[in-house]
Design a protein that fits this description.
Number of helices: 3
Structural class: mainly alpha
Oligomer: single chain
Strand content: under 5%
Distance between the termini: 27 Å
Order of helices and strands: HHH
Shape: elongated
């Protein structure tokens, strides 16, 4: 794989991350965990999961 091919692959990954739709990215996986964690804490009345779940939907959405 040439340097240009590596650059294009990385660029597409980063672009998907910015646009949303990067469902296999590390940021998406952490966003899912954070949303689930905050949702559980909301059941105890100690958290509002709205922002973390909104972030998860934006980052992990399918194109």
């Amino acid at each position: 794989m040439t340097q240009m091919e590596k650059f294009n692959k990385i660029s597409k990954t980063v672009l998907n991350e910015i646009r949303g739709g990067a469902s296999e990215s590390a940021n998406c996986k952490w966003a899912i965990v954070t949303c689930a964690h905050d949702t559980i804490l909301a059941g105890l009345g100690t958290s509002d999961p709205g922002s973390s779940c909104a972030y998860m939907r934006r980052v992990c959405k399918k194109n």
